[in-house]
Amino acid sequence: MVVLSAVLSNGYAVAPSGRQSAIVFVPDNLKRCILNNMDVIETFNKVREEYENALSSFGRAMILIDQNSNIIYANREAKEILSTSDSDDRLTGKKWTSIVETTSLATGGTLDEKDRPSAAALLAAQATSRIFFISPTYTSERTLVALTAVPLILGGEIAGGIIILNIKVQ
Question: Does domain 60-167 sit in CATH 3.30.450.20?
C-alpha cells in the first residue's frame, strides 16, 4: 500500500518509494478522494507509527510474517542480528525462509523449510520454540538464538506469525 505524503495542486503527489520519494500523477477524482480523506490518512500514519514504535521498543528481535512466510516487518534488533541497517528495507517482502538458513545444533545440518519453527507454527497453528544457529543467506555470520514462532490467528484463520529471536551466548 502506498501512502501519499503530499498531494500537490497540479495533480502530482509525493509517494515514498524505499529510501527515496517518487513523484506520481494523481487523477482528479483520486486527488479529491485523498484530499477529502486526509484525516483518515493522517490517522493511519499515526497508528502505523505507534505500532512501529511499540514493536521497536520490545527489546528483542521481532519479525512479523504473513501466512506465506513473507516478512511484513522487522524491528531494529532483528535487523542487527540479520546484518542489515535500520534504513535497509531488503527484508520486507522477502520470504523468511529464503533469507535465513537455520542450522540444527544436533546435526549441524541446514533444516528443510518445513522443519523450521516458523513453518511448523504456521502449519500446526501453535507456538514453538527451539535453539538454532541462524545465518542470513547473504553473509557468513552465524548466530546462536532461541527462536520462538507464534502464529497469528484472525477470524479462525492463520494470518501470519511472529518470530522472536533471543541471542544466546556461545
Answer: yes
